[in-house]
Amino acid sequence: MLRSNGSCRSYILQPFGAGYPDLLQKFAIFGIFAIGFNILFGLTGYLSFGHAAFLGIGSYTAVWTFKLLSMNPLPAVLLATLLGGLFAALIGFISLRRTGIYFSILTLAFAQMSYNLAYSVLTPITNGETGLQLRQADPRVLDVAFGRDYGAVLPSSDLFGIGMTGYPGFYFCAAVLILCFYISMRIFRSPFGMMLRAVKSIQNRMNYTGLNTRPYALAAFVISGMYAGLAGGLLAVTDPLAGAERMQWTASGEVVLMTILGGTGTLLGPVIGAGAIKYFENIFSAFNESILLNTFNFLPETLQHAVVSIASLFVGEGWYLTLGALFMVIVIFLPGGLMEGVRRIGLVVKRKFGVGQDDNPPAPAE
After folding, report:
1. How many Cα atoms sit within 13 Å of 174 on the Cβ side?
2. Is the pLDDT of residue 264 over 80?
3. Contact yes or no for 270/31 (Cβ under 8 A)
4. The pTM is what?
């Protein structure tokens, strides 16, 4: 449903979630998460199943920043990024002693350890299964020092008086996404990025020449962890709470799907993959039996119930079955992800309409 303001932007972006700013925030936040993961997986080929740990660390750090310092999101996202990078340096230093499937298993083990620590052992810090939330009695020393008084109302994050909910929150996340994309683009096109690609393709040859590739892989791992920490911090900025569920292995698997679905090793692919998964998740998970019955009410009653019974397996709580089928189709027919599909369409357009071709080709040499 469209917003009551009926603005032009809502009509233009309505098919992509413009009526739902919370969904747009997820597009931007998980786009950042996928961009960071792509710096590691797309450039070096190291497949991590533990990036949810950094996402959770970023969320917990941001909420504690809100509780102790200020409701301004800038210190929260800065500290979330730094803590995500420090935690990634610790895990990467150990995990990168192995490669291939052993590296993936190590990162998965660290992520599950982090999840269990947050869920049960570190409850004084994480508040366990209830999750870390804001309270009116929190000190917020910086806000108090500058005379901010929230009264009896539970505060929410705000950027110098601008609330981080709704569209303002999306604009803030989108601005951070653009900055992160620019940094990723510079990394991809830098000599450092070329070294990371060499780690992916000819790591053994580089080791034989005496070049130690581990510092480059560790640097990529830390940068990727900082992106994940930043994404976790932004999740807390738009919704000031943090729970252990953000550190589960399913969150790590989701970012892997986003990157592969969009196009591993491409600049724009992970953002497209993140947007596609979150968009379809929002669509298919919202369907229930009553909506399906209304959708197929033009069918005879017996056939209607049969169709609804089958369709209900792919929507609602079973929407992951649809995601799995979509992922299979992409992997089979577009191994390079959605970006490969875009390139194929571009080639077809060029061949059919002659776009980009020289109208006067040079004459053959005599």
Report:
1. 12
2. yes
3. yes
4. 0.88
